[in-house]
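Morning F.,

Quick status update on the modeling queue. The single chain you submitted on Monday has been processed. Sequence for confirmation:
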Amino acid sequence: MSWLGLLLIGLGVADLGHSLRPVRWVPECVAAAVVVVLGLVGGLTDARDVLAWLVIALVVIGWGRVVRVGFGVRRPEWPLALLGGTLVAAVAVSPLAGSVDGPLADWLAAVPWPRVAGTRPDSALLVLGGLLVQLSTGNVVVRLVLAATDTVNPARPSHDVSVRLKGGRLLGPMERLVILGLGLGGHVTAASLVIAAKALIRWPELQSFRDGDGRPDGPTIDEVTEYFLVGSFVSWLVSLGTLAIVR
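Structure tokens below.
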């Protein structure tokens, strides 16, 4: 599973870099470099492993570019197809991946925290990648799905409720991290409470859009509810899908 872990780490670092400092080419190139460095320090130096993490580095660079192009020319299906196809391929070939060894494995064994020290290096990479994906990649996927389904019509700026519901950009990552953390800890039922709590917290804000939010050209409660539900379900699927991969 080491290749899948490297892929998730690369995607997570690239998207996190773009969210913090959207400089052209820099975040995805830094993410690709992180993949290469982890491959080397993880002892993945067999010819097959080297080829794999080089391909992963190229995929990460391609992901960074196709996401910007997808948003720019309104072709969200391109990055979604790349992400889906890459993840399916990575899962399919994961049994061929070599085991993480070398300096990274030695460092994990020397860590003074018992839970970390007892973790297999391959699993540690996978968990790290899963956590990174929750931070920013999840938001990117949500935006891509909303755009692909035309849930919020881009031709009607006044209906872009993401401006009003922008708190989701912060709540989403926190929510996904909590769900993933609870799931990894074996408390999947508790994760459902997080989902229920979000609906209760958002309810007053959704109701504020009733009757077009008081503006003739404002979004209706049905439009905003659809936006909220689609975005929330995609966000939950990101965390639950990551949990299935990691476990």
